[in-house]
Amino acid sequence: SRPNLALIGATGAVGTVMRDIVSTRDDIWGEIRLVASPRSAGKTLKVRGEDVVVQALAPEVFEGIDIAIFDVPDEVAAEWVPIAAGRGAIAIDKSGTFRMEPDVPLVVPEVNPQDARQRPRGIISTPNCTTLSMMAAMGALHAEYGLKELVVASYQAVSGAGVAGSARLYDEVEALAGDRSVGQTAGDVRKVLANKLSDDSPFPAPIAFNVVPWAGSYKDGGWASEEIKLRNESRKILGIPDLKVSATCVRVPVVTTHSLAVHARFERDITVADAHRVLEAAPSVVLMDDPANGVYPTPLDVVGNDPTYVGRIRQAFDFPNTLDLFVCGDNLRKGAALNAAEIAELVASEL
Ligand code: 2RA
């Protein structure tokens, strides 16, 4: 019989994309159960064209479920993912809670599908959206040329911070629209926003007309949690424990689709033509690299699409075996819901 799927966190930014994804991909599922916090329970939402009533998170919602995909805050995952696994569901978790635990695989199906089979706790983690935005492309290049070092700058979309992140950008743009004097004096935008909007932004500075060099929580040494995740998760997924990684994560006024500028050093000599050949052959990567004709990916051209888009591939002048490139990936699709759905399909195919 067909496996039953539960989506936990079905009403959030990722949950909304998740419902769309399971409704439009090959339908391999028996029941699809929607679960959310008690606040959202009782709502009716569409999945596969049918109305489904959202259930409140409780141990009973895992009854008869084969696979449960979680997109909930870290502390909710810490409590409920083991409950789901304890009740016999395979839990696919999008939170940061279990990703680095040695007995929990961290899976990107194009890169390390075999790791999904080793899941002694019944838990599989899916990476942070910033890591995921580049993993399909970097995994393909690593497989042939051996990755040694990554230096990354991210340009992260506001929907990475959930529905509240997108709402804040729209509100700020609306509050500033039409005033052609703003953005010309230090602090002027902050003043306009303080008069017009609440001060509970998910971002530590204005995000409209700005870039904010901070994403996530504070970590020792002045690192942001997103930068640490990018390092640790890349190492684990690629299976290179000593990969050198340094990142600076920046929030930009883009609704959805994270971009990354990547400086990647390989073990072997690699040319732009080599990279084109590898990336053209990679099934979930789209090469958009013809800068002489203005062809390179931007978030507005990528949002809503599944693949990882790569362009601006250059051979670094002053660094051996090194490429510089620009990657865009929809942070809600491959960055979150799609990768989880692909893991679920992989696991379901082997049940
Ligand atoms: C962000 N990567 O973009 C995070 C979401 N987990 O805020």
UniProtKB/TrEMBL annotation:
It catalyses: L-aspartate 4-semialdehyde + phosphate + NADP(+) = 4-phospho-L-aspartate + NADPH + H(+). It comes from Nonomuraea montanisoli. Homodimer. The lineage of its organism: Bacteria, Bacillati, Actinomycetota, Actinomycetes, Streptosporangiales. This is Aspartate-semialdehyde dehydrogenase. GO terms for molecular function: aspartate-semialdehyde dehydrogenase activity; NAD binding; NADP binding; protein dimerization activity. Pfam families: Semialdhyde_dh, Semialdhyde_dhC. Coiled coil: none annotated. Pathway: Amino-acid biosynthesis; L-threonine biosynthesis; L-threonine from L-aspartate: step 2/5; Amino-acid biosynthesis; L-methionine biosynthesis via de novo pathway; L-homoserine from L-aspartate: step 2/3; Amino-acid biosynthesis; L-lysine biosynthesis via DAP pathway; (S)-tetrahydrodipicolinate from L-aspartate: step 2/4. The active site is at C129 (acyl-thioester intermediate), H258 (proton acceptor). Phosphate binds at R99. One of its GO terms (biological process) is isoleucine biosynthetic process. Gene3D superfamilies: Dihydrodipicolinate Reductase, domain 2, NAD(P)-binding Rossmann-like Domain. SMART domains: Semialdhyde_dh. CDD domains: ASADH_C_bac_euk_like, VcASADH2_like_N. Transmembrane segments: none annotated.
